[in-house]
Structures are given as structure tokens and as C-alpha cells.
Specification:
GO terms for molecular function: L-aspartate oxidase activity. By secondary structure, the protein is an alpha/beta fold. It contains 13 helices and 16 strands. The protein is 36% helix and 17% strand. Strands 1, 2, 5, 6, 7, 8 and 15 form a seven-stranded mixed beta sheet that branches. It has a four-stranded antiparallel beta sheet with strand order 10-13-12-11, with helices on one face. Strands 9-14-16 form a three-stranded mixed beta sheet, with helices on one face. Helix 2 (56-66) crosses helix 3 (73-92) and helix 3 (73-92) crosses helix 10. The protein is globular and about 70 Å long.
């Protein structure tokens, strides 16, 4: 199978990347589950944006402070300054955000933010954004979407990526050659006992990167969300009780219904406070009180949270709910530059699988969707400019004879390079030993080991074993 760009993942970063790529290129998007079973759909609270220039310094400082000042400053600058452009794109795709009576965007606030700067759609902002992107992608004739199709490895030689090995829905194995490959395969939640992530997101990008010597960055930087609905069943995906709930005034209580902390602390610090209180009380959870929020706000802004709690037997208008910290987000990942290029040529990584340093050691609430979109667009722009436009640029160099001669020489050399690249890709695809991937259970165990090892590498494992399946 041949394509121009292979994208592994159908979350917001993979879809937005596809929308920004040239329409004359064949794009193949594969996804491990169905098109909507990705963490982008689960994002509740909202997405940050630079609402006015006067908020830049504050937005920058809030992001840096939450990240313990380990953030890549240039990445933070790029993310913040690009946010209005991204929001404009989303609105043009039909994404609906809460509006004020005058039609202007309405902004909410979450933990560790110094002001309201988060746009939202009820408590399903991720679903609203990602479904809008998916609708647009499905309109494109140059994009093929393949569900239940997994990237099990990449095709590479001499630190150049030529495509991937994939497993199709029927279990059969195949190869896909591509000029560019984009990993948009999500996070690591499937490795954890308590996680808000889908269970099939098991850090495949980490495992494949380690296997091929691709650089990683801060793989031990894993964010624990302070408040997820407590369940005794380990197979359940932890249901997120959004940061926005505490931003609107929800309180946290110990077993004696006494408030024990500042609910708007950054996520890592608040998770520590909750774990300390659980240990002190000898409990598996603490209580969260949503009754401090006006009933109309709860019904309008958080309808899905209200409904989920009801399904679990709790009436948020009359009683507190049990909450527990859970693995939520992966700040580390495959190391990429500001154009989302990995250390391997023609392999891009975007979304939660990537680490461009924007989040530092701890992510600021509602920066995840924004970061994923901003750097997915930069990946697409880089591919369009530096991978696919070289021949066209040579052909457009003017009519002067000397320039034409130079450009023709350049174009011929570039065409030869493309031809050699395709020969290499075809050779790798035809000679890869597919038998090594046939045992799905053995491969999953090997990849889980590689990913788990990467996460715990250099970390204080004593503080992480309670979350990891180890």
C-alpha cells in the first residue's frame, strides 16, 4: 500500500494536521479503534486562547508556573500567539463555543489560571472540536480513513522513516510506504490502574521510538488529574470531574466533610494533597461538593457530569461525590522540534505522543487541545514546505536561461532523490519480516514493557508504581 502521508491517530491533532496538508497529496489516517474513541473526544473543560494582547504575559506566566518553569519558552510563545488563528479555523469548521449575549466568546477559568481565558462548549469541548474536525476531513476526497487499524512498527533505514507496518481489522499484516509519517497515537493511560484515558492507548509511540533509537524527552513526566469519579472496578476508564467544576466553586472534603486544601492548586500539587488526605483518613477517595455551584450553572455548563453522577447513583444537587486522582495526561513523549519533527527524518509526532516542551513538568489546565492543534498545523506546514514543494519550487524559478539551467539541474537531482527514496521504501516494504508481529499478545507485552520502562526511567518509581500496571 502506498500513500503520501500516513497519519496514525484520529484525534484532534491527526485530523487538524490532515486538514492543513496539500489537497493534491494522498493522506491515509489509521486509528487503533473507531474514529471517535480517542482522548480528544474526552476533553471536558475547554481550550485556552489568547483573548487579548494584554493577557499574553499572564498566560505565559501561568503556563510556565504550572510547568515548574521547565517549559520550552519558544514553544509556549508559539502556542499562545497562534491560538487566535486556531480558534478562527475551528469556528470556520463549525465548532460551537459558548457565547455571550452580544455574540462574543464566553471565557471560563480553571485551576492555576489567573484569569478567565478558556473557551468551551458545555462540558464536552473536546468532542465538539474533534467532531467538527472529523466532519471536515470526511469531506476530503484525498483522505482515506481506516478504523481498527494499528501501527505496529515503522519502516526505517539509516534514521529515515519510509512508512509503517500495520495490522488490519481482520488481524492481517500489511505495509504502508509514505513520504511522511505522522504519529498522532495519543498517550499512555492504558498502562495505568486509574486513568481517564481509553484503555487501548498504551504508549505505542514510546515503544516504537525506543525500539528504533528515536529520541524521547521527559518520558517520566506524567500528569495525574486530581478529581475523577471513584470506582472500584479496575477495568473502568476513570470519568473526569473537570477542573472547571472547581473553577466554578466546587469544594473538596475529607472523610469528616471538612475542607482540607485550596481546590485551585496546580494539578500535581492538588493530587499530592488529596493523596496525603486519603492516607491520613485511610480511604480510597475524598469527597467533592458541587452544591456550592448554582444549580442553573451546573445544568447548563456540566450536563454530562451531572448525568454520569446520576447514573452512578449520586445526585450532585443534594450530595457530595467520591473522587480520586488518576493518570490523565502525558507531558513527555517523543522529542520533537518546533515543527513537530522527530530525531528521525520524515517522522513527525504530534499531540500527546509528542514532547515539544510546551508543558514542562506539569500541564496547565486546558492547554492540551490548544497545544495539539498548534503543533499539528506546524507539522503540516513543514511537510508542505520542506518535503512536497521542492520540485514545484524548482519548476517555478523564472525564465532566465542561467536560472532555468540551475533550476532544471536542481529539479533533476530532487527527482532522482525521490526516485531513490521510493526504491528504498519499496525494498523495505517487500523485505520486512511480518512473522515477528503475528503474535499480538507477545508484541503487546513487549511494547508495554518498553513504554513502562521509558516512563519509569529516571523517575522516582516508588511514587509511580501505584499507578502503573507493573
Amino acid at each position: 500500500m502506498k500513500t503520501d502521508i500516513l497519519i496514525a491517530g484520529s484525534g484532534c491533532s491527526g485530523l487538524y494536521c490532515a486538514l492543513q496538508l496539500p489537497r493534491d497529496k494522498k493522506i491515509t489516517i489509521i486509528t487503533k479503534s473507531d474514529l471517535t474513541s480517542n482522548d480528544s473526544y474526552l476533553a471536558q473543560g475547554g481550550m485556552c486562547m489568547l483573548k487579548e494582547e494584554s493577557d499574553y504575559d499572564s498566560f505565559f506566566e501561568d503556563t510556565m508556573k504550572a510547568g515548574h518553569y521547565e517549559n520550552d519558552k519558544k514553544s509556549v510563545e508559539i502556542m499562545i500567539k497562534t491560538s487566535p488563528e486556531v480558534v478562527k479555523d475551528l469556528v470556520s469548521y463549525g465548532a460551537r463555543f459558548e457565547r455571550n449575549e452580544d455574540g462574543s466568546l464566553s471565557y471560563t477559568k480553571e485551576g492555576a489560571h489567573s484569569t478567565n481565558r478558556i473557551i468551551f462548549h458545555e462540558d464536552v469541548t473536546g468532542k465538539e472540536i474533534t467532531s467538527s474536525l472529523l466532519r471536515e476531513v470526511q469531506k476530503l476526497s484525498n483522505v482515506e480513513l481506516l478504523e481498527y487499524t494499528t501501527m505496529v512498527d515503522i519502516l526505517e533505514k539509516d534514521n529515515h522513516c519510509y512508512g509503517a507496518v500495520i495490522r488490519r481489522p481482520d488481524g492481517s499484516l500489511d505495509t504502508v510506504t509514505a513520504s511522511c509519517t505522522v504519529m498522532a497515537s495519543g498517550g499512555v493511560g492504558g498502562l495505568y490502574r486509574h486513568s481517564t484515558n481509553f484503555r487501548h492507548l498504551t504508549g505505542d509511540s514510546l515503544a516504537i521510538a525506543r525500539k528504533h533509537g528515536i529520541e524521547l524527552q521527559n518520558p517520566d513526566y506524567v500528569q495525574i488529574h486530581p478529581t475523577t469519579f471513584y470506582t472500584r472496578r479496575p477495568e473502568d476508564r476513570s470519568f473526569l470531574i473537570s477542573e472547571s467544576v472547581r473553577g466554578e466553586g466546587a469544594k473538596l472534603y475529607d472523610k469528616n466533610m471538612n475542607r482540607f486544601t485550596n481546590e485551585l492548586l496546580p494539578r500535581d500539587l492538588l493530587s499530592e494533597k488529596i493523596h496525603e488526605q486519603m492516607a491520613k483518613d485511610g480511604t480510597d477517595f475524598v469527597w467533592e461538593d458541587l452544591r456550592t455551584i448554582p444549580e442553573e450553572t451546573l445544568r447548563h455548563h456540566f450536563p454530562n457530569i451531572v448525568e454520569h453522577c446520576k447514573e452512578m447513583g449520586y445526585d450532585v444537587f443534594k450530595e457530595c461525590i467520591p473522587v480520586v486522582p488518576a493518570q490523565h495526561y502525558f507531558m513527555g513523549g517523543v522529542k520533537v522540534d518546533h515543527q513537530s519533527r522527530s530525531s528521525m527524518e520524515n517522522l513527525y509526532v504530534v499531540g500527546e505522543a509528542a514532547c515539544n516542551g510546551v508543558h514542562g513538568k506539569n500541564r496547565l489546565a486546558s492547554n492540551s487541545l490548544l497545544e495539539s492543534l498548534v503543533f499539528a498545523k506546524r507539522a503540516a506546514q513543514d511537510m508542505a514546505k520542506n518535503v512536497f514543494s521542492q520540485t514545484d519550487d524548482a519548476a517555478d524559478c523564472g525564465t532566465d536561461s542561467s536560472i532555468t539551467e540551475i533550476s532544471n539541474t536542481y529539479a533533476a537531482a530532487n527527482t532522482a532523490d525521490i526516485h531513490d527514496t521510493q526504491i528504498t521504501a519499496d525494498y523495505l516494504a517487500s523485505h520486512v519480516d511480518l512473522h515477528q508481529y503475528e503474535d499480538q499478545q507477545a508484541l503487546a507485552e513487549a511494547y508495554h514493557h518498553l513504554a513502562t520502562e521509558a516512563i519509569t526511567l529516571g523517575a522516582n518509581t516508588a511514587n509511580r508504581k501505584e499507578f502503573l500496571y507493573v
